[in-house]
Amino acid sequence: MYYKYELKTNNEAFYNITDMVDDAIKKSGVESGICLVFCPHTTAAITINENADEYVAKDVILASKTAFPKLEGFRHDEGNSDGHVKCSMFGASETLIIDKGKLVLGVWQDIYFAEFDPPRNRSFFVKIIEG
Ligand code: ZN
Fold first, then answer.
1. 73: closest CA among 83, 82, 62?
2. Alpha helix (H) ranges present in the chain?
3. What per-residue confidence (pLDDT) applies to 26?
4. How far is the CA of 36 from the centre of ligand 1 (A)?
């Protein structure tokens, strides 16, 4: 089994989901293991980055828009190919260590749901494996 969480996104931005992942670990009761956070969408992603300065996430979004802009040559009818490209570049999942019932993250790290095609009703899954 796995845990499912939902969120509503309004902007192309990073949404901090660390508390929801912590909630899944707490519910599982697992003290030591691996935690997989998975995004089941094709224009969004899961990523880890700095939690101290909010401008870091904004800067990464700005850089991703610059690196992967809407191109005139895109042929996908929905018109959101830039979001699909960013989805693949950032990736659909992150794998984390659980120790003593808590996520092992760097001091400045948090887990983010990255939205590249807002607004949307989104979800993500957390799978916890004991070991
Ligand atoms: Zn599309």
1. 82
2. 18-28, 54-67, 81-90
3. 98
4. 25
Identify whether the C-beta of residue 5 lies closer than 8 Å to the C-beta of residue 111: no
Q: So where are the chain's domains?
A: 2-130
Count the neighbouring beta carbons within 10 Å of the beta carbon of residue 50. 18
Q: Give the pLDDT confidence score for residue 125 in this predicted structure.
A: 98
CA of 81 to the centre of ligand 1 (A): 6
CATH class name, domain 2-130: mainly beta
Single pTM value for the model: 0.96
Count of alpha carbons within 13 angstroms of residue 76, beta-carbon side: 12
Cα 95 to ligand 1 centroid, rounded to whole Å: 26
Name the maximum alpha-carbon separation found in the chain. 51
The three-class DSSP label of residue 69 is coil
Tokens of 14: 């990073």
Residue 17 CA to ligand 1 centre (angstroms): 24
